[in-house]
Amino acid sequence: MIDRAVTPARVAIVIFIIVFAVTLARFYGAAMLGLGVDESYMVVMARHPSLSYFDHPPLTFWIVHATAWLTGSEAGFVLRTPFIAMSVISTLLLYQLTARFYGAKAGVWAIAWFSISPFFMLSAGSWVVPDGPMMLFLLIAASLLTPLLNPNTRHISDARWSAVGLAFGLALLSKYMAVLTGVGALLFLLTDRELRPLLRTRGPYIASAVALLVFSPVIWWNATNGWQSFGFQLSRSVTSAGFDLPVHLLNTGRMLLGQLAYLQPVTLIVGLWLVVRFFRTGEKTVSGRYFLCLAIVPIIVFNVVVLLSRNTLPHWPMAGYLFLFPLLGSWFAKLKSSSVVLAKHAFAASAALILIVVVLGGLHFKTGLLTRPLGFPPPRWDETIRAMDWFDAKDALITRGLLQNGEPTPLYTLNWIDGAKISYALNGLADVRALGSDPRHFGLLPKLTPESKVLIAGLLPYDDWETRLNRVRASLAGSFCEITQHKPITINRGGVPYRALFLLSASSC
Predict the structure, then answer these.
(1) Beta-carbon count within 10 A of 186 CB
(2) Could you tell me what percentage of the chain is helix, strand and coil, using 3-state DSSP and rounding each to the nearest 5?
(3) Any idea where the Glycosyltransferase RgtA/B/C/D-like domain is (predicted)?
(4) DSSP of 349-362
(5) What phi, psi does 432 have (nearest 5°)?
(6) What confidence score (pLDDT) does residue 172 get?
(7) Contact 321, 131 (CB under 8 A)
């Protein structure tokens, strides 16, 4: 961190060290970890360009499609590179946004804690998921609106309002929950007596119209597909099942612990304390109110929704926590000398812990290093299969003569998760579809042409897999005839057998 002798050169050096170190860690993760389930699904569906998709708006899929087309590669390291680049830009924007109101020292503290928060470091920082693009465009939109906080520049130009609408529209085109940050911006205007008259001018409506225009492909796609995407996301947030206290308490606990892990304790605890302090004290700056309004809507909404849902995910409020980092940076920058030493020690300890987890985690996911001394099979809790690439399936199917160049082989899986992992690994050599009640966007792909022979594959459980396989065959008997069981496909981790996929051949009835 920088000391009290703040100079532009020293600030630039510290920013470079932070960005370089974290970018190095992200590239390390990109090299060591295979694509996760959501990432594999993104890549597979990006092969089928569409105005939108069943579970997410299209921008991330379009980025993946463009990257694969430009590079000629679907390698995870290649596809993750644009997302790492976006995270670097987001970090610099966050610094600029914080330093503009609270000074360079606050900006450095903000990006330091931002960069070691696991969610922003890894998931939103490097993975092929919608969070990274959404965060980038929300930061751009928030930066474009900052002249409103200066009494001398509050009536910004129509061109700037259009740029705000474009940035916000691209955030919406990345992920639906960006709309809550827009609600936060509206809340800021409504709660400021001097800014409220802006709602009677054309600027905000120009921004809204541009954002709606950018988002219009998603609306059109939903309108022509029974509003499936909107309905799916709403159904995930609020369940129609009756209230079950143990289930909802368990979900609430998982949500809180997940946020603690994604942000790491110092960031979450200090950030929430600053929110409480803001409401309790009389000192309310315009900039503080601005960042708080952008932050609290997603945080409150998703931590209230957890009481109505059985399966809320802890990364949903992260777009809100993003805008607490300027306040966090400001607080750390104002600490007295004695407290700064403690803060630096806390940061160093947090960064060291995250670094150890990233390094050892990457090695373990790649090689099984930590549990290999325990023998085979690995413990049940050692579940890394869905963060691995299943390329062994491709090699096995080619060796057995079940995959050939030319017309893709029709292949079914029992769920969208196995479908995403297998389809990514087979790299277009199989035309994969998912069976079951939740096929996601697989269910919207063109139906397979009836074939005399199809393949059916999926992940086997750790134990009692023969019983599981017999149940699978029984469930398929009504749809397929002459089901033939093949030798399972071994998935290796670090050159050692780890898990297996069942493989069946079946004839259409």
Answers:
(1) 15
(2) 65, 10, 30
(3) 55-221
(4) HHHHHHHHHHHHHH
(5) -95, 140
(6) 98
(7) no
Closest Cα partner for 308 from 365, 378, 235? 235
Condensed to tens digits (0 to 9), the pLDDT of residues 146-201 reads 999 887 777 789 999 999 999 999 999 999 999 999 999 999 999 988 889 999 99
* Rounded CA separation 90/424 (Å): 29
- pTM comes to 0.94
Helix or strand (DSSP H, E) at 499:
strand 496-508
Tell whether the torsion through CA atoms of 27, 33, 35 and 37 is positive or negative. negative
Apex CA 179: angle with CA 152 and CA 268, to 5°? 85
Unique residue bearing structure tokens 């059109």: 220
> What does the alpha-carbon distance between residue 48 and residue 432 come to, in Å, rounded to a whole number?
12
pLDDT band (50, 70, 90) for residue 1: low
Token digits of residue 486: 């093949």
Longest dimension (CA), the chain: 78
Task: Return the HEC string of 282-325.
Answer: CCCCHHHHHHHHHHHHHHHHHHHHCCCCCCCCCCCCHHHHHHHH
Could you tell me the CA-to-CA distances from 415 to 23, 82, 176, 394, 472 in Å, in that order? 34, 29, 24, 19, 12
Residue with tokens 């603690």: 260
Least Cα distance to 174 among 225, 137, 203 occurs for 137
